[in-house]
Structure formats: structure tokens, C-alpha cells
């Protein structure tokens, strides 16, 4: 029994000395969805964090047709002097995008090395969100002249109905 406890303590000591505390955080998106109109662009920030005293280098990978890194790099080093690094993506929906189009933005950070030796557990941090082009309601997708004509037609009908009711009402009042 004592031998088993000693072995478990030994392994716990080894694992605790090689464990690293790092993470990735990003801006909140409701339902993991960003809504952008055709031609519109937006900056999206991701933060890599490392609370260890040792420096840690990450490979940052981006998979998307509509997103690109604001600053061009492939590796990010964070650690004692710089415990976090903000990575900015620029997301731009094409001008010719149609209402209802969806795009995927996937990104990941893979730790590749530590200042005091190689990293033992290569845990990949992933995230993904979608970008959708909103679907307009039917009235706003009609040509502008048609909407103006429809408005004038509706206003004319309302005025005629009011005028007719007033004429009938005034005729009854003054008949006596």
C-alpha cells in the first residue's frame, strides 16, 4: 500500500512540474454568430493568456475565406514579462454576398515550445464562429420607387375614406 502511494506521489510530482496554465479568450458573440452586411467589415479580438512564469510559444492558425490576421505572424510568445497577447482578426464580407449567406471562421492556438524545455502535452486551443449576411424583410427588398408609390396610394385611400365618412356624417347632421 505504501509503495502505491509513493508511486502515485511520484507521478503527481512529475505531472505538476510540467503542467502549464494557458488559455484563449475571445469577444462574446450571441449564438456564436456575427451578423454583417455585404461589404461590411469588423475587427474581432482574441486573447492568448499564459499565467506561468515560463515563456510559451504558440502557432496561431486561421481557417476562413473572409477573415485575416490584422498583423501578419504565425507564432506568438507570451510569458513572465507579457502574460497575454491580443490577436486581431479583420472580418470582411464580400460585396457580392447574398442575404442568408454563411461563412465560417475557425482559429486555433497550438503551444509549440516552452522557454525551459519542450512542451509535453500538446493541447490545441480551438474556437469557431459563423458570420451570416442578414435576410432583409420583403418590403425593404422592393425597389424604392415601388415603395414610394405604395405609400402614396395608401395615403390617398385613407384620405378618400375619411373624406367620404365626413361627407356622409355632415349630410346627416345638416339634413334636418
Could you explain the architecture of this structure?
- The protein is built from two helices and nine strands.
- The chain is α+β, with helices and mostly antiparallel strands.
- The radius of gyration is 31 Å and the shape is elongated.
Key descriptive features of the protein:
five-stranded mixed beta sheet, four-stranded antiparallel beta sheet, 2 helices, 9 strands, 27% helix, single chain, 176 residues, alpha+beta
Could you give the order of the helices and strands? HEEEEEEEEEH
The assigned structural class equals alpha+beta
Shape: elongated
Radius of gyration of CA atoms, rounded to a whole number: 31 Å
Give the strand tally.
Answer: 9
Terminal CA distance reads 115 Å
* Largest beta-sheet details: 5 strands, mixed
Oligomer: single chain
Amino acid at each position: 500500500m505504501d509503495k502505491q502511494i509513493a508511486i502515485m506521489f511520484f507521478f503527481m510530482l512529475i505531472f505538476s512540474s510540467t503542467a502549464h496554465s494557458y488559455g484563449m479568450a475571445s469577444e462574446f458573440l450571441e449564438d456564436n454568430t456575427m451578423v454583417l452586411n455585404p461589404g461590411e467589415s469588423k475587427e474581432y479580438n482574441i486573447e492568448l493568456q499564459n499565467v506561468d512564469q515560463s515563456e510559451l510559444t504558440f502557432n496561431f492558425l486561421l481557417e476562413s475565406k473572409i477573415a485575416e490576421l490584422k498583423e501578419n505572424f504565425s507564432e506568438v510568445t507570451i510569458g513572465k514579462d507579457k502574460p497575454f497577447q491580443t490577436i486581431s482578426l479583420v472580418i470582411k464580407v464580400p460585396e457580392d454576398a447574398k442575404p442568408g449567406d454563411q461563412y465560417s471562421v475557425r482559429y486555433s492556438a497550438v503551444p509549440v515550445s516552452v522557454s525551459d524545455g519542450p512542451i509535453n502535452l500538446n493541447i490545441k486551443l480551438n474556437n469557431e464562429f459563423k458570420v451570416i449576411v442578414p435576410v432583409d424583410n420583403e418590403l425593404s427588398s422592393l425597389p424604392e420607387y415601388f415603395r414610394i408609390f405604395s405609400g402614396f396610394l395608401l395615403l390617398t385611400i385613407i384620405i378618400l375614406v375619411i373624406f367620404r365618412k365626413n361627407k356622409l356624417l355632415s349630410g346627416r347632421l345638416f339634413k334636418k
